[in-house]
Inverse folding.
């Protein structure tokens, strides 16, 4: 089943440095959607030498259609990830400007976090690192993201002019 979109959905990865290798694994699992022209992906490693990293990050965070919060203890203690990026992501989600999807990478207490009300991935919010087969965990995440893309495509600005056209929860 192929999703068609006039303009690719931009996905922003918000992650702690220590989770870089897990972020890259997830990125590999999303590559087929990128090849199909469904998505473009952005994370801070795509910043070129000489570019202003904070400005570039802010631009992409403010323009992303889907924001992935890659959750771990390191994400939760990072002032930049938690307060700056996640704070802005949740603002945009609540205004209906973007879909925020928490992806639980490593076990951590996140029940009091502002994103707790959102359905997390992978399936049953089981941390990726606790799955016996991480490829299956990332497949679950990939399927959830594809589902969000399908829903987003149905509510794109060309078919809906409501202010909250992107405000959905994965159910």
């Amino acid at each position: 089943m192929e999703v068609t979109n006039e303009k690719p959905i931009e996905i922003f990865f918000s992650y702690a440095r220590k989770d870089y290798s897990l972020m890259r694994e997830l990125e590999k699992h999303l590559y087929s959607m990128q090849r199909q022209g469904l998505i473009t992906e952005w994370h801070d490693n795509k910043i070129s030498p000489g570019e202003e990293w904070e400005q570039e990050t802010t631009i992409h965070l403010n323009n992303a259609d889907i924001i992935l919060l890659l959750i771990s203890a390191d994400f939760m203690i990072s002032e930049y990830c938690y307060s700056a990026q996640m704070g802005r992501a949740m603002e945009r989600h609540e205004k209906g400007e973007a879909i925020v999807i928490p992806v639980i990478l490593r076990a951590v207490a996140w029940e009091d976090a502002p994103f707790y009300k959102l359905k997390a991935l992978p399936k049953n919010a089981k941390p990726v690192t606790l799955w016996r087969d991480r490829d299956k965990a990332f497949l679950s995440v990939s399927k959830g993201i594809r589902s969000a893309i399908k829903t987003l495509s149905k509510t794109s600005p060309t078919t809906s002019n409501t202010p909250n056209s992107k405000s959905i929860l994965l159910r």
